[in-house]
């Protein structure tokens, strides 16, 4: 691999949060900021400088809590479906640059800026989840500004272990009442607001009028989030992640969340590529890969973009 002539990755001197951050930049001006605290994408902008991910104005940027916004990594547990802290510990740990793989300042096929991160369990982690793993994460920005995350989790333990997983993606929207999701019609979902009761989606598209917290099971690998006011469509592609979690806290719950503004539910929607209904099990030496790619395109071009294969 040669030095990237189309895109760059540099340490970010303007980052005011915990630890180090890396700034990825495409030749057309799109950017992605990655914090080593949590291995978390905390910003993604298009070539016009418009922020595409939501971050709460009340977000806590300092450890030990994860930042409310961006794309927290949920591992080895998603939500409360286990004995660990909510969404697991990976989003609250300090990750390291992965020196065993390609260095930071190189480009993938000359067209991607990327950073490779790695997380290994601490003694504290092993006390609460007694399994040894290597979690490698590549975050990259394409020439056209598409954002991709590729997670590879290897069992370096002497026994099998199981985990759930999610890319907890906070999308920035103009007004939640003007947003709809396409691609989840007719699917079964688990409703976390009613003890994970199983239902079947009845609508032609998902729209929002109240709190939503659902796990759509066996979902397709391409989903679209349409923002009518901004005339923008987010295209979400995933691999190795069978479920899609859709979450918006709405007004009442927002007021109970200390790191979330009372009215901020109107400006965000979480659509998470995840593995929740059925845990992933790795035998000793086995590795699992889960991929997410996000594109933001004008809604008029959406159908053309949906027909294109993923480029992860």
Describe this protein with a few key phrases:
single chain; 312 residues; mainly beta; nine-stranded antiparallel beta sheet; eight-stranded antiparallel beta sheet; globular; disordered N terminus
Description:
By secondary structure, this protein is mainly beta. The chain has helices at residues 123-128, 250-254, 302-307; strands spanning 8-11, 21-25, 31-35, 40-45, 73-74, 96-97, 107-108, 112-119, 133-141, 147-155, 161-167, 170-172, 179-182, 188-191, 197-200, 212-216, 222-227, 232-239, 243-248, 268-282, 287-298. Strands 6, 7, 8, 9, 10, 13, 17, 18 and 21 form a nine-stranded antiparallel sheet that branches. Strands 5, 11, 12, 14, 15, 16, 19 and 20 form an eight-stranded antiparallel sheet that branches. A four-stranded antiparallel sheet has the order 1-2-3-4, with no helix packed on it. Strand 3 and strand 4 form a beta hairpin. It is globular, with a radius of gyration of 18 Å.
The total beta strand count reads 21
Shape summary: globular
Question: Roughly what fraction of the amino acids lie in strands?
Answer: 35-45%
Number of helices: 3
- Straight-line distance between termini: 17 Å
The biggest beta sheet reads: 9 strands, antiparallel
**H/E element string?**
EEEEEEEEHEEEEEEEEEEEHEEH
Structural class by SSE content: mainly beta
Helix percent band: under 10%
User: How confident is the prediction overall: mean pLDDT?
Assistant: 89
């Amino acid at each position: 691999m040669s030095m990237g002539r189309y895109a760059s990755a540099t340490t970010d001197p303007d980052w005011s949060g915990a630890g180090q951050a890396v700034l990825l930049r495409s030749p057309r001006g799109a950017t992605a900021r990655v914090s080593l605290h949590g291995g978390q994408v905390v910003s993604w902008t298009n070539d016009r400088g418009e922020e595409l991910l939501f971050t709460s104005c009340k977000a806590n940027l300092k450890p030990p809590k994860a930042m409310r916004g961006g794309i927290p990594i949920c591992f080895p547990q998603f939500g409360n479906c286990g004995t660990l802290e909510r969404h697991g510990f990976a989003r609250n740990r300090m990750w390291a640059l992965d020196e065993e793989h390609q260095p930071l300042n190189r480009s993938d096929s000359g067209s991607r800026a990327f950073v490779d991160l790695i997380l290994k369990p601490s003694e504290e982690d092993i006390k609460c989840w007694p399994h040894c793993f290597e979690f490698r994460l590549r975050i990259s920005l394409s020439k056209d500004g598409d954002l991709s995350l590729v997670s590879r989790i290897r069992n370096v333990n002497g026994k099998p272990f199981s985990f759930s997983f999610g890319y907890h993606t906070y999308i920035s929207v103009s007004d939640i009442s003007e947003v709809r999701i396409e691609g989840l019609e007719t699917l079964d979902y688990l409703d976390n607001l009613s003890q994970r009761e199983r239902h079947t989606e009845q609508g032609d598209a998902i729209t929002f009028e109240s709190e939503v917290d659902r796990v759509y099971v066996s979902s397709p690998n391409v989903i679209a989030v349409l923002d009518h006011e901004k005339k923008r469509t987010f295209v979400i592609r995933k691999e190795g992640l069978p479920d899609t979690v859709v979450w918006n806290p709405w007004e009442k719950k927002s007021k109970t969340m200390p790191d979330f503004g009372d009215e901020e539910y109107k400006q965000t929607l979480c659509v998470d590529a995840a593995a929740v209904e059925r845990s992933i099990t790795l035998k000793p030496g086995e590795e699992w890969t889960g991929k997410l790619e996000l594109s933001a395109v004008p809604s008029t071009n959406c159908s053309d973009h949906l027909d294109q294969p993923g480029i992860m």
